[in-house]
UniProtKB/TrEMBL annotation:
Required cofactor(s): a divalent metal cation
InterPro entries: CAF1_poly(A)_ribonucleases, RNase_CAF1, RNaseH-like_sf, RNaseH_sf
Family the entry assigns: Belongs to the CAF1 family.
Pfam families referenced in this protein's UniProt entry, alphabetically: CAF1
Protein name (record): Uncharacterized protein
Gene Ontology MF term list: 3'-5'-RNA exonuclease activity; RNA binding
């Protein structure tokens, strides 16, 4: 039997946790006033890849901003754009993975350097910006608090940063900005200038935040967004996409969750826990990873899940193991000094390069190289196929409409098979998919006619009067839905959002 090489950590004892034993990883904590750029610049320059993760103040501002199967690709992008632009970053994790070769055996292993950067969501005087407000999602803050995130560290001692766009604007008025306000963004510039391979897990929102906070406001279309991200960060790997797209890895995962913690425990069992026996292991670990530790330094804390630096570390470990299952041999790939970017140039990794798993579960993948969204594997839809041209949006109705009542009153006018499906956005709005596109135009025309003759007995007794009761009901086509979503406001109820957005119906 061939000997196995294990994922190990340097100088850290095993720590008992109930019936299992978990290895602790020291994560360097970086706050305002800490010196970090020179050391990180050297690590990034020498790294084969850099794993990242971000922790933010929220993900969705209201339930109706969740991504639905009824959302077109551009609507889903608008929801992603809203999330990245309105919520703040609290932590940003970077973990350079530096290869080292054993002098006698020639075996390549990696030394990981996990860092958690605590970021200030406000300028705190470094930059005179009148727009320092940001959203917070209660459930996200509760989740982070449960995982021991120290909000005071970010708010009181977080690193400042400016995006490139903010810096350019401030250059026109130097009195509004001081060379410290740019802050943490210098490291992001370094990642970009070196064209480093960036590795994340389910990282589309992390990438969106990285662009919005450190480059410029996110463009208005998904295609332009992907084009500009690819310009600054041309080499990105999403480990969740590899897990979804590679059948060998799926078999190893044994239909388990594809979350980062699940992938870490399944693919890197020796490093995540010692409770696994050989029969339980998803794989025989073939890459050695050592976590760098500075003995006696007060800047290091034991990492834990959902701390940005530790999640970046887990992501990088998962990636090294995925490379093994893709048939990538680090001993060979990293042996040619003439190749400056051996991993992103590797023919076995290229099919996954710049393919990011979207936040929405639609059976697609975002190709940042071409700026397109394309199918990924098999996907089981919960609803009939959505034809956006056949959809009408209705909101502001006064009565508590049920699916059966709504479909029934429409069927009396357009026929029993006229409605394909109905989706309630929330208690105040609904999307209705008709069988034919002309039914959308007929429905909207009928609504206008009934409103003009609202006091007419025929209008009062009309089957659709249940929907239009009260005179506050509004309706539009799918483009109207898109216009409401595009509005940057965040009202709790969809009907209030529609009113605030000023859509004309």
């Amino acid at each position: 039997m061939a000997a196995r090489r294990s994922l190990l950590l340097l100088r850290r004892p095993l720590c008992s946790m109930g019936t299992s034993t978990s290895r602790k990883v020291e994560v360097k904590q970086v706050r305002r006033g800490d010196s970090y750029y020179d050391s990180l610049a050297s690590l990034i320059q020498n790294a084969s890849f850099v794993a990242l993760d971000a922790e933010m103040t929220g993900v969705v501002s209201t339930p109706w901003r969740e991504s639905f199967e009824w959302d077109s690709a551009d609507v889903r992008f608008l929801k992603l754009r809203h999330s990245a632009s309105r919520f703040a970053l609290l932590q940003f994790g970077l973990c350079p993975f530096i290869p080292q070769r054993d002098a006698s055996s020639g075996v390549v292993s990696f030394v990981a350097h996990p860092h958690t950067f605590h970021l200030s969501p406000s300028s705190d005087g470094d930059y005179d910006n009148d727009d320092d407000e940001f959203l917070c999602q209660t459930s996200s803050l509760q989740f982070l608090a449960a995982h021991h995130l120290d909000f005071n560290t970010s708010l009181r001692h977080g690193l400042s940063y400016l995006s490139r766009a903010q810096e350019k604007a401030a250059a026109a008025a130097p009195a509004l900005c001081n060379e410290s306000a740019v802050g943490f963004r210098h490291l992001i510039d370094l990642l970009s200038s070196h064209n480093k391979l960036i590795v994340g897990h389910n990282c589309i929102l992390d990438i969106a935040h990285m662009f919005d906070k450190f480059i410029a406001p996110i463009p208005s279309t998904m295609e332009q967004f992907m084009k500009e991200v690819h310009h600054f960060f041309p080499n990105i790997i999403d480990t969740k996409h590899i897990i979804n797209a590679n059948q060998t890895v799926q078999l190893l995962m044994r239909n388990k969750s594809k979350s980062l913690s699940s992938a870490f425990s399944s693919l890197c069992p020796t490093i995540s826990s010692s409770r696994f026996h050989r029969s339980d292991r998803a794989s025989d670990v073939d890459v050695k990873v050592q976590a760098h530790v500075d003995e006696g330094s007060s800047l290091f804390n034991s990492g834990a899940k959902h701390e940005a630096g530790y999640d970046a570390f887990m992501t990088g470990c998962v990636f090294t193991q995925l490379c093994v299952h893709l048939g990538i041999k680090f001993d060979q790939v990293l042996s040619d000094p003439s190749i400056s970017d051996p991993l992103q140039s590797n023919v076995k990794l290229k099919p996954y390069l710049n393919h990011l798993y979207p936040t929405w579960n639609s059976g697609t993948v975002l190709d940042f190289t071409t700026g397109t969204e394309k199918p990924e594997g098999t996907y089981k839809q919960k609803y009939p196929k959505v034809v956006f041209e056949n959809i009408v949006l209705v909101w502001g109705f006064t009565s508590v409409l049920k699916y059966k009542n709504l479909k029934g009153c429409i069927a009396k006018v357009f026929g029993p098979d006229s409605v394909i499906s109905v989706f309630f956005i929330d208690s105040t709005a609904v999307l209705i998919q008709f069988k034919k596109e002309e039914f959308v135009k007929d429905f909207l025309a009928l609504k206008e006619s009934l409103e003009r003759q609202k006091d007419d007995p025929i209008s009062i007794l009309h089957p659709l009067s249940v929907i239009f009761e009260g005179g506050n009901t509004k309706a539009g086509d799918y483009n109207t839905y898109k216009d409401v979503i595009a509005c940057n406001l965040s009202k709790v109820l969809f009907k209030d959002q529609a009113e605030a957005s000023g859509v004309v119906c």
